[in-house]
Amino acid sequence: MSDTTVREKVIAILAEQAMLEPSDVTMDSSPEDLGIDSLGLVESIFAIEEAFDISIPFNANEPDQSDFDISSVATIVAGIKTLIAEQADA
């Protein structure tokens, strides 16, 4: 899967959750910047897991303790690419 495809899918999922147009989502945007609350973040994580057939190591109860960086769209995309690569190697 190309980097562009991963980025576009993630942006589409986050934009849908935030009720924004994908063009309004930048790689520097944080979930908070997009107006995504904790429940919306969990729903976004589930949607991303389903879209890419991966399991994201994210604890909704302790997001700061997670190994998965959700601080920006760019870090989410990078983490997903890593998980996809790890799954391909398994």
From TrEMBL:
InterPro entries assigned to the protein according to its UniProt record, in alphabetical order: ACP-like_sf (IPR036736), PP-bd_ACP (IPR009081), Ppantetheine_attach_site (IPR006162)
Ranges of residues in domain Carrier: 1-84
PROSITE patterns linked: CARRIER, PHOSPHOPANTETHEINE
Protein name: Phosphopantetheine-binding protein
Gene: acpP1
Keywords: Phosphopantetheine, Phosphoprotein
Pfam families listed in its UniProt record: PP-binding (PF00550)
Gene3D superfamilies linked to this entry: ACP-like
SUPFAM superfamilies assigned to the protein according to its UniProt record, in alphabetical order: ACP-like
Highest taxon in the source lineage: Bacteria
